[in-house]
Design a protein that fits this description.
CATH class of the largest domain: Alpha Beta
Largest sheet: 6 strands, parallel
Shape: globular
Helix content: 40-55%
Structural class: alpha/beta
Distance between the termini: 64 Å
Number of strands: 9
Length: about 300
């Protein structure tokens, strides 16, 4: 049985590993990205080829996948599509209102649109362990289902147009609010002369009673001046702004979401966009006049 021919747009931290996994699973994947350097990193990989432009990608693909860093980029690609019977599987995260608009506009051109944002980051994309959130016409979802096990190890249909985007935004914002709270907690710890390493160890030992292991990991990384990038602050700032905007759209005043978005905006303004998302701790340091530091000599178990 012939595997679907895939077109893939967007080869960033999430898109590149997903494209590689699809190719390794035997799907022929044609690639397009505005950045030639990203395309160059995938050259020579079996089942991967480079398309000259978006028009070539659309012409030859059975299913087109997009994994783009901004709503504007998603809308630009969608606006350029013209071929009926094409399936568009969008792995990006956009506002629910935008997703609903795309569903309607693309359907008017005979193009089937399925939202498929995910919960997870580049490491999960590399390992194929993303949680995929799906919304769209049930028949369309069934059509693209053969791709899903290669992209993630779990998939959940969460409703009609806009539903997957809503769940993805709120889930991401919840994690970012936790990061903001950790940064402020570490500032409070520093103000009283506390030891970061000892605090992290206590968190890790407390387990589920106080915090999940990821919180201890985030606290540890905030104590590093330049933590290795697991997810760029720029993308996290985009997600925080989407959540803030969604709250405004539905008429809710959510101070925690607003404060989180403000922290990430400030971090962007300080030139931290390409740093790890835990670098929002640097903003809290500036605001409080305190320095989050690590001291490996204190806070050990008695």
């Amino acid at each position: 049985m012939r595997k679907d021919r895939l077109g893939f747009v967007g080869l960033g931290a999430m898109g590149a590993p997903i494209a590689r996994r699809l190719a390794a699973a035997g799907f022929p994947v044609a690639l397009f990205d505005r950045d030639p350097a990203r395309l160059a990193t995938l050259e020579g990989t079996a089942n991967l080829s480079r398309a000259a432009d978006l028009a070539e990608l659309e012409r030859d693909a059975d299913i087109l996948l997009t994994c783009l860093p901004s709503e504007k980029a998603v809308c630009e690609v969608a606006a350029a599509l013209r071929r009926p019977v094409l399936f568009l599987l969008d792995l990006s995260t956009v506002r629910p209102t935008t997703a609903r608009t795309l569903h309607a506009e693309l359907a008017g051109r005979g193009i089937r649109y399925v939202e498929c944002p995910s919960i997870g980051g580049p490491a999960e994309a590399e390992a194929g362990t993303l949680l995929l959130l799906l919304s769209g016409d049930p028949t369309d979802i069934e059509r693209i289902r053969p791709l899903l096990p290669t992209i993630g190890n779990r998939a959940r249909i969460v409703g009609g147009p806009g539903a997957a985007s809503r769940v993805a935004i709120v889930a991401s914002a919840l994690g970012l609010v936790q990061l903001a709270a950790i940064a402020e907690a570490l500032a409070l710890l520093a103000a009283d002369g506390g030891d970061l390493d000892g605090f992290v160890e206590a968190l890790a030992e407390a387990g589920e009673t106080v915090a999940k292991p990821c919180l201890a990991t985030a606290a540890r990384r905030m104590g590093e001046r330049r933590a290795a990038v697991t997810r760029t602050l720029r993308i996290a700032a985009k997600d925080a702004a989407l959540a803030e905007g969604l709250a405004e759209e539905v008429g809710l005043d959510l101070p925690l979401f607003r404060r989180t978005a403000e922290l990430f905006r400030a971090a962007l303004g300080e030139g931290l966009g390409e740093d790890d998302l835990t670098s929002i701790a640097r903003v809290v340091e500036r605001e409080t006049g305190l320095r989050i530091v690590r001291d490996a000599t204190a806070g050990r178990t008695a």
